[in-house]
Design brief:
alpha/beta, Rossmann fold, six-stranded mixed sheet
Length: about 250
């Protein structure tokens, strides 16, 4: 187990009224697992992701990374935790507009390590691996397609070998072909041992996981486990997940 919550609660004040988004939630994430978080709009999916990753602090309860309680960390200490342990991929691709593709990746890498020929080589190899050719490395983000930009964003997120990769609707703004390319990258990362926690509302995207957690009103209503993607019949996989989601009221 790499991550767990204990009676996790998150509330917000809305016009003087407390809105309880996450309610006494207990959850465990295992190492090398590909966990997908689903639920209707407003169910608390992204709020849970932010609490798990240290991007937000819970109102009550605890989040443990291994045996360490990170819930009481200061903002500065949480920033260090995220830098050393987490990678992030969002629906909006936050590449730095004034930097080239290669510099975007290298800037993320240099936050933790000094520049070196080995680091440059790693960045080059990872960009090639996700289909970003050398001729694209000197382009700027506004010269990329959405799919290209998201693939660069994934390389930037994993260049430092994060213990957990968090993704929030990573294919939400992509066309079907680009989304499939991005999902293939996630699948291959997971098969190589990368722990992934991903929020999505899309069935095709959720099929890539090995475990689906369904939230309703900030509480876990059920979970569904599947073999690693590609190790079973895709039609049966889709039907099994669809039946589970129907049961959950999706």
């Amino acid at each position: 187990m790499i991550l767990r919550t204990e009676k996790l609660c998150k509330s917000f004040s809305n016009g003087g009224v407390q809105q309880h988004v996450i309610k006494n939630l207990d959850l465990e994430i295992n190492e090398k697992e590909f966990t997908v978080i689903m639920g209707a709009s407003g169910s608390g999916k992204s709020t849970l992701l932010y609490a798990l990753s240290g991007m937000d602090t819970p109102t009550l309860g605890k989040v443990y990374f291994g045996d360490t309680n990170i819930s009481d960390y200061t903002n500065d200490r949480l920033a260090v935790f995220r830098r050393e342990n987490c990678g992030f991929v969002f629906q909006s691709i936050f590449l730095l507009d004034n930097m080239t593709v290669f510099d975007n990746v290298m800037t993320a890498a240099l936050v933790r390590r000094k520049n070196s020929p080995e680091l440059v080589k790693k960045a080059e190899e990872m960009l090639k691996k996700v289909g970003i050719s050398e001729g694209t490395w000197k382009k700027y983000p506004n010269q990329l397609s959405g799919g290209e930009a998201q693939r660069v964003g994934i390389v930037r997120a994993v260049i430092n070998d994060p213990k957990i990769l968090f993704a929030d609707e990573p294919t939400g703004s992509l066309n079907s072909a680009s989304a499939a390319d991005v999902l293939d990258i996630f699948t291959n990362l997971n098969k190589s041992g990368q722990t992934i926690v991903m929020v999505t509302h899309d069935l095709k995207t959720a099929l890539r996981g090995s475990r689906v957690i369904y939230l309703r009103d900030g509480a876990v209503m059920g979970e569904y486990r599947m073999p690693s993607y590609g190790e079973d019949d895709i039609k049966a996989r889709r039907e099994g997940l669809q039946d589970f989601l129907d049961e959950m009221g999706w």
